[in-house]
Amino acid sequence: MNLLFVYITCLIATASAKKFKDNEKPEWAKKDIRDFTEADMERLLEQWEEDDEPLEEDELPEHLRPMPKINLNEINTDDPESLLQATKKGRTLMTFVQVAGHPSRDVTEELTKLWQTSLWNSHIQAERYLVDDNRAIFLFKDGSQAWQAKEYLIEQDKCESVTIESKVYPGKYSKPKEEL
């Protein structure tokens, strides 16, 4: 049995060696891999991906995904935020969250971690990154969830403000600018 396996393996190797003789290879493929240029590597990648099945829409990189279909009849045209929310569906969106007062980085870390956990418990997925002692970025893979998260965040007593698409939403308990 083992001898038969070795024999078949040798036949396959011989057949594939005949198929890819050096004189049949393009000039760029005869080079040592260490001498490949970017163009050679690109050709090699294209050759590698030739027989791959195309990716599903949700597996494509964000810049190659088709824009979401928006039914304008279902959107309240008097509310520009609902239109913006609909256009961000399925797109990555960053939201800046400002913590009130002058907290230490550790306090901001704990507060934003608590808020992130609460959002996750409400099925709103957000990644959190601290950018300053009192400021964090919440990154939403589905940008339409940012407005739901904003509604939760501005209700928190330590939330100074939430910024989405350059629009600042003050927290419910934040002090007006004159008092600062």
UniProtKB/TrEMBL annotation:
BP-aspect Gene Ontology terms: protein folding; Wnt signaling pathway
Record's signal peptide: 1-17
Chief localisation class: endoplasmic reticulum
Record key words, sorted: Chaperone, Endoplasmic reticulum, Signal, Wnt signaling pathway
Gene Ontology cellular-component annotations: endoplasmic reticulum
Localization annotation: Endoplasmic reticulum
UniProt xrefs under InterPro entries: MESD
Family: Belongs to the MESD family.
Protein's UniProt name: LDLR chaperone boca
Organism encoding this protein: Acanthoscelides obtectus (Bean weevil)
